[in-house]
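Practice record 12: protein with tetrahydrodeoxyuridine.
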Amino acid sequence: MSVSPASLISQAVQARRHAHAPYSKFPVGAAIECADGSVFSGCNVENLSFGLTMCAERVAVGAAVAAGKTDFLRIAIVADTDEVISPCGACRQVLAEFNPSLTIFSANLRGRIQEFSLAELLPRASTGILNRP
Ligand code: THU
């Protein structure tokens, strides 16, 4: 059972509406798909301290893990930019913990979509960072 990229992106668009981004005014939504077809969404949650801000991707990962799901296949992320965004370094590493070759669909609100593999955004995660054989 798998979810279409359009549906994953649309769930990220919905989650983006809940972003708490009063400081950057840059709401982001994410939706992560698990092997069983379940989807967990997240939005960025900013904090006055700035440093405690959580990105949408990591909030989505946290929601999935809290529901007992870690077998991630694909994630969609959405922001209101001309070019699509890509996950920050911290999120790349957190995503790689679960699937170093995760597929990433990054979209803007005007229908631009770009597909990445986490393996290209964070090469050698398994041996270089996660130290797995
Ligand atoms: N942000 C995300 O949530 N995901 C990204 O991939 C890029 C950046 C958030 C963090 C911060 O709240 C705001 O966007 C500006 O960087």
